[in-house]
Amino acid sequence: MASLSMGRARRFVSNCFRKHSSTTPSPDNNNNNTSPDAKALASIAAEEERKGGAVLVELFSSQGCATSPQAELLFSRLGRGDFNLERPVILLAYHVDYWDYTGWKDPYSSSLWTVRQKAYVEALNLDTMFTPQIVVQGKTQCLGDDEDAMLSCIASAAREPAMAFKARYERPSDDSLQVALTGSVRSKLESQGADIMVALYECGLVNDCPEGANKGLVLANDYVVRHLQKLTSVNDISAKKTVSGTVDFTLWEGFKSSKCGITVFMQNSSQHIFGAQNFKLPDNL
Predict the structure, then answer these.
(1) Is this model's pTM higher than 0.70 or not?
(2) pLDDT per residue as tens digits for the range 82-110
(3) Which terminus of the chain is less hemmed in, N or C, by CB atoms within 10 Å?
(4) Given the DSSP bridges, would you call strands 273-280 and 205-209 parallel, antiparallel or unpaired?
(5) CA–CA separation, 108 vs 128, rounded Å?
(6) Residue 241: its pLDDT value, please?
(7) How far apart are CA 88 and CA 52, in angstroms?
(8) What single DSSP character describes residue 237?
């Protein structure tokens, strides 16, 4: 683990401490003469609703941190379903920029992701920022390369209702993507309110690292957040009320929709997550 003191913005610790969502068919709800299969599907749907939706797992990482590649591998395995979890997960990886000054600039890093991590550090009453870090549902955290701790955080996470949005995509220009979303949050929000956020991420990124802590390694990264935007803010809203909005993303060179997806999630000012939904982008968008 590599850490950064909150009170010393550019004071670095040189060493690192070692130590998708599932879909349920919707039953036809015609009359009292419901078939046994339809009743079974209805039972499954009711159980899924009771259990709640997917768990949002966020990784804060850097190609400039010696232990981040191990965490990235663990994160990719989590996305592949290697751990046979009882609950679906949605994954987002943010590459922070505070290790960009130690020999290698992470090509996916952003100061925005450092600010996002800092918000979690403050909300979770931590003493320092560090990589790699896992945050689950905005409520618990652990070392990103600690498999047992990560799985424990996921297993104990509160399951919020699954969001129910539909997405429509347009390409206004070669370097832009517009996403229109309409649906319900399926959570009752009172005066505190929350923001509905939309992340655009990319998988299957591979590049050489010629300098820095991971010099000579070929680094593989999945679920890398490229953009994060607010769709809208909601408060005093019922679980079924329709919410809609549009976000516009500027695309990067080499963008391929087949490698990308979007995640919609709802987060309040305490950084708690109240539901998430994942969409794989259509091929050849």
Answers:
(1) yes
(2) 999 999 999 999 999 999 999 999 999 99
(3) C
(4) unpaired
(5) 22
(6) 82
(7) 10
(8) B
